[in-house]
Amino acid sequence: MRQEALSDEEVLRYDRQIRVRGFGLEGQGKLRKATVVVVGVGGLGCPAATYLVAAGVGRMRLVDGGEIALTDLNRQFLYSREDVGKPKVEVAAERLGELNPYVEVEPIGEELDERNVGDLLEGADLVVDGLDNWRTRFLVNEACVREGIPFIHAGVRGFYGQMTTIVPGEGPCLRCILKATPPEEDVIPVLGPTPAVLGSLQALEAIKLITGLGEPLVGRLLIFDGLHMKLEEIYVSRDRRCPVCGSAKS
Is residue 6 part of a domain? Predict the structure, then answer.
């Protein structure tokens, strides 16, 4: 359980980030009070959750109804061959708990859908997109807009990835950016380092949002091209006629 003040061991554990200009004990305290929900503990969710737990986020809720498969192991580094067939959230929670016992990790082995999305996101300060399908992404996007919860989206394929930050009322939501739902793929081809890059960026963005440091990726879509090692950004605007966020307060 979280304590009211940082222990001496915690201060030492987080020493390098506490030394970062503008971060300090105040930033560490903000992290400690935060609840982050990671939906999907796969290629994106593994690095995002790992770096957030290592950074000292107070409570981490992992949502994933899947089991570990051998084909996951090229990119989902929280798991090993001996874990194949086990529930992802249970193994991930155990590994993350070993990494940082000061973080409360809550595993929820359910697939997020229309019936449970409200309960699964309840109390969240921020939601991280570790999903691999658009239907659920748009469902989480709608719930986050409705509840006023920041949502950090990322998606990957092959050498490529994209990322944006949705802060309800401050910029476009995912439906503003993608008005037509992209086609789903049964099997998404991906190189392991690609989601590692995007998941790490999601963790960095989450830390910025929680601590209030820097400029969030609101109104911008970051495009990662690992094949040619390029980063580009596309400016995106909120659609006032958007069926999801068009009526949200500015």
Answer: no
